[in-house]
Write a structure and sequence with these properties.
The protein is an alpha/beta fold. The chain folds into 2 domains: 2-161 and 325-364, Quinone Oxidoreductase, Chain A, domain 1, CATH 3.90.180.10; 172-302, Rossmann fold (3-Layer(aba) Sandwich). Helix content is 25%, strand content 25%. It contains 11 helices and 17 strands. The strands form 4 sheets. Strands 3, 4, 5, 8, 9, 16 and 17 form a 7-stranded mixed sheet that branches. The protein has a 6-stranded parallel sheet with strand order 12-11-10-13-14-15. The longest helix has 20 residues, at 163-182. It is globular. The protein starts with a strand and ends with a helix. Mean pLDDT is 92; it is low at 125-131.
Length: 365
């Protein structure tokens, strides 16, 4: 049996997202069917739709910040029930057998196809991997009315979180939460956040809730007041002298910028043994001075989204501390305009699609 579905997808790297009617398989054993209520718009969606990483499978239907309600469960499901408010993030399966998967770090899955992305299919093209272990050449994401996911890759959304604001926590939230937890941020630590978009906003809120002193680095002066309003101790806009006063200051610097940028200005700002962590850009970066690393036993590292367990943790943490991203809810018919504004750097908040706006297209399909 199949489910009639509709969503917005791109057919080429140069095309706008347009309505696409398709079918999803009914919930099988261990799976749940979810009526999608809201879906966040991530900068990764733009990169993927436009094939910036050279691995896009078309049609490409983005969306990996999904919040909805369970409408049906397959046999054997015990973790979720019909009516539950749930979320789906960047992953919907993994090999479950490799060392990272057994360590509950599915985002680093080393199986032949890596983890199964919520959209755009396996992270490694099946043709290169010798076959698609997931039985799918592509997967369609949350810019749609319904999704079917294995129950253990579905998250519980706390009732105290605003439903529409919970969506970006499933990517922007966990992408910043995971490195903050991994590198042990605690009260009294000094954290630098490079970039103040959707990821930077969550990084500041989460680090502050963990008790850290936060400094924001941005090249957009009009974002300074918003960063200070969140409790940033300082906001720097490229003042070289100010950088000089912060040498050996930070226990952790988190770079949330989604584009190529220089790393070397930040290395001297790291304290002895501290780390610069990239979570935004997935492209080759300019080099840095190894001497600056060696002399202070400093590190440059990366962190990829977060595990399923960490995603549940950050949802619960946000609910406990009253944290939510700043969002603007839009109808799906405005998604192409939202992409343009994101590419131009004109927005700080996260766009979230109200999937109820898909109803006219669904009725016509």
């Amino acid at each position: 049996m199949t489910i009639k579905a509709i969503g917005y997808a791109a057919n080429h790297s140069f095309s706008r997202l347009k309505p696409l009617a398709f079918e999803r398989e009914d919930a099988g054993p261990g799976e749940v069917e979810i009526e999608i209520l809201y879906c966040g718009v991530c900068h990764s969606d733009v990169h993927q739709a436009e094939n910036d990483w050279g691995n896009t499978v078309y049609p490409c239907m983005p969306g990996h910040e999904i919040v909805g309600r369970v409408t049906r469960t397959g046999t054997g499901v015990t973790l979720h029930a019909v009516g539950d408010l749930v979320g789906v993030g960047c992953m919907i399966d993994s090999c479950r057998e490799c060392a990272p998967c057994e360590a509950h770090e599915e985002q680093y899955c080393e199986g032949p196809n890596s983890w199964l992305a919520t959209y755009n299919g396996p992270m490694v093209p099946a043709a290169k991997a010798g076959g698609n272990m997931y039985g799918r050449d592509n997967s369609y994401g949350g810019y749609s009315n319904v999704v079917v996911v294995k129950e253990d890759f579905v998250l519980k959304v706390p009732a105290t979180l605003p439903i529409e604001a919970a969506a970006p926590i499933l990517c922007a939230g966990v992408t910043t939460y995971s490195p903050l937890r991994h590198w042990g941020v605690k009260p009294g630590h000094k954290v630098g956040v490079v970039g103040f978009g959707g990821l930077g906003d969550m990084a500041v809120k989460l680090a502050r809730a963990m008790g850290a002193e936060v400094t924001v680095f941005t090249t957009t002066p009009e974002k300074a007041d918003a960063a200070r309003a969140l409790g940033a101790a300082a906001v720097l806009e490229g003042d070289k002298q100010a950088y000089k006063t912060l040498e050996r200051h930070f226990d952790l610097i988190l770079s949330t910028i989604p584009e190529k940028h220089r790393v070397d200005p930040f290395v001297p700002l790291l304290a002895h043994g501290a780390t610069f962590v990239a979570v935004g850009a997935l492209t080759p970066m300019p080099g840095w001075n190894h001497q600056a690393l060696v002399m202070g036993r400093k590190s440059i590292a990366g962190s990829l989204i977060g595990s399923i367990a960490e995603t549940q943790d950050v949802l619960d943490f946000c609910a406990e501390h009253g944290i939510a991203p700043d969002v603007e809810v839009i109808p799906i018919q405005q998604v192409n305009e939202a992409y343009k504004k994101m590419k131009a750097g004109e927005v700080r908040f996260r766009y979230v699609i109200d999937i109820a706006s898909l109803k006219p297209e669904l009725e016509e399909a």
